[in-house]
Amino acid sequence: MSAAITTTGLTRRFGDFVAVQNVDLTVAPGQFYGFLGPNGAGKSTTIKMLTGLLTPTSGSIQVLGLDFATHGLEVKRQIGVVPEGMALFGRLTASEYLRFVGQMYGLDRATTLQRTEELLEFMNLAGENKKLITDFSHGMQKKLALAAAVIHGPKILFLDEPFEGVDAIAAGTLKQMLQGMITRGATIFLTSHVLEIVERLCTHVAIINHGQLIANGSLEELRAGVHTQADDADGTTTRLTLEEIFIRVIGNEAGADPLHSEQELSWLG
Predict the structure, then answer these.
(1) Residue whose C-alpha is closest to residue 225's, from 212, 213, 210, 215
(2) How far is CA 224 from the centre of its chain?
(3) φ, ψ of residue 161 in degrees (nearest 5)
(4) Cα torsion 148, 151, 152, 154: sign
């Protein structure tokens, strides 16, 4: 079976600035894949290239066995995207927007109407049919963006900070939906700064920093790799959380241990 996503030497430059450099990734079908990094590390730039919003400066991308450079439209029909800025049409209602997106993906009218109704009900947006999207809260817009990204039943879903600004109830709804997609064989590629959610949902994680991939593997593989450097003095091994793994990996690259920093702010006592 072909990989869901494969990149080789993926690079993106903006003038003299290298945002992403020689990234090699392989994401297997059905994986819930977390893509992590500090601010400015290259996460969003990578997602934009994987979804066709940015053209790589060099390197190649294959999605579902198709070369993105030559089969871009075919790839886009089979993926869903919740981008960083959501890019919703604010002067439409939620149902108008979903019907428009369904038609853009080539769904017939009956299927579009049925899925629109089901998605609005599932996202607890069915009672907001007369309100324009521009008047939605940030969390409501996030749920609508996810509904639009899945209305055509994508094989791969790309999510850029999907839980940012979302309350606990809405986050629970989104997580339920994402887990259902994984159960049915979809692949999810997620970026998030909420590492507890990534640890709970994702089976595999990659970490990028300064545009370069510095860690990649299952959570247990990352945990084992960090343990070789983080065993306790008495010989025992602490089971690190994803947050601790992330901080140690980023800190080791910088030549420091952020978990044991001696830096203080004097006025905070």
Answers:
(1) 215
(2) 24
(3) 55, 55
(4) positive
β-bridge pairing 204-209 and 187-191: unpaired
Q: How many residues does this entry show for the chain?
A: 269
Weakest-pLDDT range from 12-26, 172-186, 201-215: 172-186
pTM confidence score: 0.89
Torsion of Cα atoms, 89 then 93 then 98 then 104, to 10° = -50
User: In this model, does residue 190 exceed pLDDT 70?
Assistant: yes
Amino acid at 264: E
Burial 231-259 (b: 16+ CB within 10 A, else e): eeeeeeeeebebebbbbbbbebeeeeeee
Nearest to 6 by CA among 47, 62, 44, 46: 62
Report the alpha-carbon distance of residue 230 to residue 216 in Å, rounded.
Answer: 18
User: Looking at residue 164, what is its pLDDT?
Assistant: 83
Q: Are 5 and 27 in contact (CB under 8 A)?
A: yes
Average pLDDT score over the chain: 90
33 contact partners, CB below 8 Å, separation of at least 6:
5, 27, 187, 188, 189, 190, 202, 203, 204, 205, 206
DSSP-based three-state secondary structure for 23: strand
Highest mean pLDDT among 5-9, 39-43, 217-221: 5-9
Give me the phi and psi of 138, to 5 degrees please. -60, -40
The answer to whether the CB of 47 falls within 8 A of the CB of 158 is yes
pLDDT digits (tens, 9 = 90+) for 151-172: 999 999 999 988 887 888 888 8
Q: Is the pLDDT of residue 243 over 70?
A: yes
Confidence (pLDDT) at 236: 59
Tokens of 111: 């299927």
